[in-house]
Design brief:
The chain is of the alpha/beta class and about 350 residues long. It has a single domain (about 30-295, about 335-350), classed as Metal-dependent hydrolases (TIM Barrel, Alpha-Beta Barrel). It has twelve helices and twelve strands. The strands form four sheets. The protein has a five-stranded parallel β-sheet with strand order 7-9-10-11-12. A hairpin with a 2-residue loop joins strand 3 and strand 4. Helix 3 (about 115-130) packs parallel to helix 4. The relative contact order is 0.15.
């Protein structure tokens, strides 16, 4: 009889101290999040105050965002609902981006060859005049949006140029999510470091993507070069935290580009020396974000990661659930000047929202 193999769930013998901050060292702008449920704004503010979060930015301000176990859906709605209930009612505490006309494009939806870019630019201008302070582009661009011929729309498709030009004219940033973790593009087997993630959310696999991860990033980088007057925020550490030297080169080459750390402390926290050096070097170009349900325990884990030198601790997975981490992470212990810029100053500088 074969002995049971318990090596996949070992009992950890390390005796380590824990230093979880109740509040962030400086006021925080969560520059990458969504309203996952229609939370009572007063309840949200009480939680934000307890954790030291000054402003919550809802990237999908003109949609209802529904997270299902293996994916998510966007339901278009008037942006006035979020602005009236949250932004205007609580000045400085909430802000929002718009998805413009992209909110009407679900997975596989056809984008008309003629007129979509111009129509999306007009919708963007209208939403900004109503209170939106940025444009959110989801990963469907380059992976699922198709034109009338059935071809996948590349990230740098010239038919969308009016959208990027309008963002530059309006002085608002474009937060763009291109590709996904590198392992999502590989076959899902036991050698895949995201195997446990893809077992729970098989729809997240990019193995059938019409473009490879490298092709998608090349398309995005060509877009960034072609529209240098537009400010871009490349979400999730430019969606290549597995290769910080690449991200560093991207920022060096494109002064119009910023990144956020949303939902990537798992990747950064397993390479703490490299991550600390990178974030310190690029502290003027990094924004704080979580992309997870707005909860004090999640915020405090992010603060612990950024502020302390705690070792080998757990983090919530991509949907804010504990106990699904693939490895433990380490705190970076960033210096005060770096923390201040990442927590709030950089977001205030490039996103035109009303500060608290």
């Amino acid at each position: 009889m074969t002995a049971k193999d318990d090596t996949q769930n070992p009992e950890i013998m390390l005796k380590l101290e824990s230093h979880v901050p109740e509040r962030a060292l400086f006021p925080v702008v969560d520059a990458h999040n969504h309203l996952f449920t229609e939370e009572d704004p007063g309840t949200m503010i009480a939680m934000m105050d307890a954790a030291g979060v000054e402003t919550f930015i809802n990237l999908t301000g003109n949609t209802a965002f529904t997270f299902v176990q293996s994916g998510y859906t966007y339901t278009p709605r008037d942006i006035g609902w979020f602005i009236d209930r949250y932004v205007s009612a609580y000045p400085g505490r909430f802000a929002c981006f718009t998805m413009s006309e992209f909110a009407n494009c679900m997975e596989g939806t056809l984008i008309e060859d003629n007129g979509f870019g111009e129509r999306a630019a007009r919708r963007l201008e209208d939403d900004v005049h109503r209170g939106a302070c940025g444009l959110k582009i989801t990963k469907e661009l380059g992976m699922r949006y198709r034109d009338l011929k059935g071809d996948t729309i590349p990230v740098n498709d010239p038919r969308l140029d009016p959208v990027w030009a309008k963002a530059a004219e309006l002085g608002i940033p474009v937060l763009i999510h291109t590709s996904d973790p590198a392992a999502f593009f590989l076959p899902d087997n036991e050698k895949n470091e995201h195997h446990s993630t893809l077992l729970r959310a098989p729809d997240w696999s990019c193995a059938a993507s019409p473009f490879s991860k490298e092709e998608l990033l090349d398309q995005r980088d060509e877009l960034l070069s072609a529209h240098r007057a537009t400010t871009f925020i490349c979400a999730h550490v430019a969606n290549y935290p597995e290769d910080l030297s690449y991200v560093d080169g991207l920022l060096e080459e494109h002064p119009n580009v910023y990144i956020d750390i949303a939902a990537r402390i798992d990747e950064l926290g397993r390479q703490p020396y490299s991550a600390r050096d990178f974030l310190t070097k690029r502290r003027d170009r990094v924004l704080f974000g979580t992309d997870m349900p707005a909860r004090a325990d999640i915020y405090r884990t992010y603060f612990r990661f950024l502020e302390t030198r705690d070792e080998y601790f757990a983090y919530p997975d991509y949907v804010g659930v504990w106990g699904h981490q693939r490895w433990m992470i380490y705190g970076l212990g960033l210096e005060r000047d770096t923390l201040r810029k990442i927590y709030r100053d950089n977001a205030r500088r490039i996103i035109p929202f009303s500060a608290a």
